[in-house]
Amino acid sequence: MSNPRLKPFLRVYHRQDEKHLFIGVGPDKVRIADPTPEMVDFVVGLDGTSSVEQLRAKYPDTDDWLRGLAGVGVLDDVEGTAGLPADIADRWSRQINYLRLFDRPGWSGFEGQQRIRDARVVVVGTGAGGTTLLRLLNAAGVGHLEAVDFDTFAVDNLPTHATLDEADVGLHKLESLRRHLPLQNSLTTFTAHDRTIRSADDLAELIDGADFFLHAFDRPREFAATWSNLASLRTGTPLTSIGATDKGARVGPTMLPGVTPCWECAGIYGFDILRHEQTAALTGSTVAMLAGIAVNEVLQLLSGAKPTTRTSGQSLYVNTDTLTFTFTEYQFRPGCVCEQYRRDRPAA
Questions:
Q1: SS3 for 215?
Q2: Looking at the domain 119-341, which fold is it?
């Protein structure tokens, strides 16, 4: 690093009535306790315009200070955009900055954005959850998006479907998505599958080779989750979902085949429904919250920022009345359908 600099998105500051120097904000901010004025000048001046030799001439402790800053990951050791096209790096610069909070030797947020750009994600179901998931994935720059559905939009979808406007009422959901998504991001390839899911085989055919599968359908109730679980296992495709019912809301569990417990391990419960609900109790804000959390998890996995995430093998339940967040962790269940898959999975 001939001309060291701090990562440009990190704030350097003092807090009122404190002498400590802080780099970055949030839970991972770095605190330098009681720095000397020279150290403060050194840190603030690390903008890439001075060479190490020039810094040494001015600050005798340069090597120790650089070593310490490198150790906490605040120095920028990436040249330019690391091979990412300049227009992509510019458009998704803030997202890349977030990914760069996970930089490590051999991987940076620039590579992460390229992986997102190369990824293929399939969303099955384009109700409130599916359309919002697609909107966020499209905004994030996922290169290849696919959606599966057969239905049309109704007027009562408008409050909960973030992608829609009034002109879409009565139209086929996939046609509306074909219109909206390119207006948001013309660089993403969108493929629509107009079909009804009738088996795990149908799903496996659609998601085979995909980098991620988002389950966003609930019919038929007694089979939908089981089919998605089996298709994910058969194809090795990571899987997650969101759901909301009355005052309850859920993200996950995210299933990484062969790595985390599957949905059968978590428990797919059958229902003896005596009276079907005629409609749903749901707000668009709840859907947006769940979809935002889920897509953040998906992007961390697609990009390579993290090998597993908070909802990997766990579900997040949100009580939307009390805003209570509860995580439930699942264990592998002996004799589960995923046991053979784990046994046959090649060692990493």
A1: strand
A2: Rossmann fold (3.40.50)
* pLDDT tens-digit readout, 203-239: 999 999 999 999 999 888 789 999 999 999 999 999 9
Which residues are CB-contacts of 310 (< 8 A; sequence separation ≥ 6)? 297, 316, 327
Percent of the chain predicted with pLDDT > 70: 97
What CATH class does 4-77 carry? alpha beta
- DSSP assignment letter at 339: H
| Cα 293 to chain centroid, rounded | 7
pLDDT, tens digit, 9 for 90 and up, residues 305-320: 999 999 999 999 999 9
- For tokens 């089981």, name the residue: 226
Residue 183 has pLDDT above 90, yes or no: yes
Domain with CATH 3.40.50.720 in the chain: 119-341
At residue 344, does pLDDT exceed 80?
A: no
Q: What is the largest CA-CA distance in the chain?
A: 81
Give alpha helix (H) positions in the chain. Answer: 37-44, 52-58, 62-71, 86-91, 93-100, 109-118, 128-139, 173-184, 200-207, 224-235, 263-266, 284-303, 338-344
Residues of the chain with CATH 3.90.930: 4-77
